[in-house]
Amino acid sequence: MEYNEALKYIHGSHKFGVKLGLTNITRLLELMGNPHRKLRFVHVAGTNGKGSTVAFISSILAKAGYRTGIYTSPYIERFTERIKINDVEISEQDLSRITQFVKEKAEKMLSQGGNHPTEFEIITAIAFQYFYEKKCDVVVLEVGLGGRFDSTNVIDTPLVSVITTISYDHMDRLGNTLPEIAFEKAGIIKPGGDVVIYPQRAEVEKVFEDVCIERGALLHRADFSKLRLENFSIDGQTFRYKNYEDLRISLLGEHQAANAAVAVEAVEILKNKGLRINESHIRDGLSNTRWPGRLEVLNKDPVFLIDGAHNPEGAMVLRDALNKYFPDKEKIFIIGMLKDKDYKAVIETIAPIASRFVTVTPGSERALPAAELGKFIETYCKNVTISDTIEEAVQASLKFAKGNSVICAFGSLYYIGEIRKLFTKRHVPS
């Protein structure tokens, strides 16, 4: 199987939909010899901040000398970004070979009267097989959707479970209230396990407390009263957390310092379980963490950022960060959204700080058309430009920018990656 053929098979499995539950993935992995049973995991769930937290933890583990698998979703530019070891992407050859192996087992499932695995189940199985073959010491595993019935939850009790912020997203599958959504995320809490949570609303934390009591798990909270931001710029920020002074990260926004603190808490548990991690590993791991598409600066003159904010909480975090870093600059936004997201609440959050919007249509069957999005935005901001292509949107935003402007493209990751490619390949004016 060639690489493009492998991608075609993987993405073609999208037609089998999203089926929450562990029956399919359990059977598929059984036919594969249960590779996940031979691995150790850090399991990360939450609405926002999962990817950044995964990146911080995996970078620290890699600096400590551990062969660290990383499984995340979605990707920004290349599919292979989703499966990495020590931040090196799976090769096209390995992906193709393992996809063929998984495909054969999926066909066997069908011949035995089972259901065809979904796209996410297939990708998860590929990742497990790859990490097993490459003899990873630890795998940092990001939940795809929810937690309780997510395919990644097929694993046994991990070294530590981590739950980041809980917000409104995927309500059609996870529930309409924050406690309902939290309950689904809490599904990754395993009997006798250790759980680190990002401090948040009392009603959300109570869900985690109750599940931990029920399952005999130990709950740990990051202590944000001991988190102090020391300085910040568009090149990064430094902060202190508990006994760690002058910790540096390149990721922007106070929320990233908070995510880093959660990662440090998880690492402390790993240390207590015998992993050889010292302070220099933590410092170097945090400072070397990169996570594309999250308040990422692509250009400095004018300032051009991209961010994956696509839900109300993400929009609030983005708004607050832009006000903090660029208090006196006019803000031009490129936005593309999926129609099943709460785009109205996102716009209501961002519009008060916006001088202009440029709308695009993301490359997804679930995309909200740029014209429809633009029409809604006009209720809040009269300066709206509708673009036919992503490149056209970037060029329009640059044309509108003045000396005191900052441009931010945000919303769906389905188009953020395309904008990133334009800048990294310098298809836009420098």
Describe the structure.
With about 425 residues, this protein is α/β, with parallel strands linked by helices. The chain has two domains: about 5-285, 3-Layer(aba) Sandwich (UDP-N-acetylmuramoyl-L-alanine:D-glutamate ligase), CATH 3.40.1190; about 295-425, Protein-Tyrosine Phosphatase, Chain A (Alpha-Beta Complex), CATH 3.90.190. The chain has 15 helices and 17 strands. It has helices at about 5-10, 25-30, 50-65, 90-110, 120-135, 170-175, 180-185, 200-215, 255-270, 280-285, 310-325, 345-350, 370-375, 390-400, 415-425, and strands spanning about 40-45, 70, 85, 90, 140, 160-165, 195, 220, 225-235, 235-240, 245-250, 295-300, 305, 330-335, 355-360, 385, 405-410. The chain has an eight-stranded mixed beta sheet, sandwiched between helices. A six-stranded mixed beta sheet has the order 12-13-17-14-15-16. The protein has a three-stranded antiparallel beta sheet with strand order 9-10-11. Strand 15 (about 355-360), helix 13 (about 370-375) and strand 16 form a beta-alpha-beta unit. The longest helix is centred in the N-terminal third of the chain and has 20 residues, at about 90-110. It is globular and about 60 Å long. The two termini are about 40 Å apart. The model has no long low-confidence stretch (mean pLDDT about 95).
What is the strand and helix layout of this fold?
Layout: H1 3-12, H2 23-31, E1 41-45, H3 50-63, E2 68-71, E3 83-85, E4 88-89, H4 92-111, H5 119-133, E5 138-142, E6 160-163, H6 171-174, H7 178-185, E7 194-197, H8 202-215, E8 218-221, E9 227-233, E10 236-241, E11 244-249, H9 254-272, H10 279-287, E12 296-300, E13 303-307, H11 312-325, E14 330-336, H12 343-350, E15 354-359, H13 370-377, E16 384-386, H14 390-400, E17 405-411, H15 413-424
Parallel strand pairs: 1-5, 1-6, 2-5, 6-7, 7-8, 13-17, 14-15, 14-17, 15-16
Antiparallel strand pairs: 2-3, 3-4, 9-10, 10-11, 12-13
